[in-house]
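Let's practice the habit of predicting before peeking. Look at the sequence and jot down your guess about where helices and strands might fall. Then scroll down.
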Amino acid sequence: MVDLPVSSNFEPLLGDISESNEPSIQSQIGSIDSTSGGMFQRKHLPLVIGMLSLSFAAASLASIVGPFVPGELSKIDASQTVIGVAFSVYPFALFIGSPVAALLCTRFGQAPVLYFGVVVEGSLSILSGYFHHLSSTNVGRISIFIILRFLQGCGAAASYTSICARLADTFPHNLGQAMGLQEAAAGLGYMLGPVFGAFLYEAGGFVFPFLVMGGVVLTTLLVLPAALRNYTPTIDKSSQGWQEDVEVCVGGSSWRGLGNPGVITGALATVISGIALGFTAPTLPGHLAKLLDVGTVGVGFIFAIPAATYIVSSALAGLAADRFGHEWVMTWGLVGMASSYLMLGPAPFLSALLPSTVFYHWLSQVLSLAGIGIAIGMALIPSMPHMHNSLRAAGHFNASEMSAGVFSSAYSMGECLGPLFGGFVTNLVGFEW
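Done guessing? Here is the structure:
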């Protein structure tokens, strides 16, 4: 092991790496984003606009199903368990597909994987609208819908992982800011998607939401070539070091670097954030109806509170992480998450200390849900930049692809586990605990 001379700008980030005749990863990192405004330079605007547009469209497409799909599946004798499976296969596909997508990005490049994911996601969404006509039996129709939903998730894994990898490659010094904006766009899509779905369903029936939103996702193919045209990688991917990482990632039994402490802590923060997002989904409506005496419309508006604060928090957390440090922002995000959930119940040991008035109940629920959205943004957004920096410091030439795959997979795992864990714990000890 030898110490390599590096610029003082990177001394806190980069450590010792093995001696090699190849140029070090440190020496290959460009200076295109050494300032906080780098990602808004004119040459980067097509990439930023294209990626934000795709993130918003894809998230909207993924979330349109909530208002009308359960009712449609119930009409063909689908049980609540089967309906739950139809919803959970999408994040499950993201969970298992993201590492595969990262390997494909490493092997074939980010752009081909991105285009493939967009085509699969958009076209199979349109096909989902016609699932009634693809089988003559209810069991067959339900099975086809679930399979199509799973394949859509695989397409989303390809496009989302390649987006994250491209942002990491292009904005290595502003990755927190870039991820914050990307997640804000996706969060806005997830919040508005159910509204779009309900409106389009009322306007044109079951097929119309899938046809319109699937078409919108496919339309992004018109702008993505311009977005990717001026891409200049910060790592020389023709180098021996990159090729060695490709051989290990594609041909080996596991990725190098997954045991890196930075990857482990970042992945844990991502999983916890994903769990927190869906933890109360199955049980919060009943809790709010009982505590605040609100109907379905009121519950819907209250549900929008953490989504709205998450959107704002995502953008600001990225800026804060780039300025003050990823670990610092993640830690305070996790602390805020725990505190907000304690107040949401509220926890039994706090109930005796707090006022029991209608006004306070409303205030505590609104502030707690707002705090959850803010805290999730703080914990989630810095996690991928934290993993990326740790891998890059350890000399991994495919740090962008690897960190993107781990981030997407870990987040999707949390999305899968959150509702299951929340329902189980509530049945076991009650909502307050």
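How did you do? Confidence is low (pLDDT under 50) at residues 1-37, 234-254.
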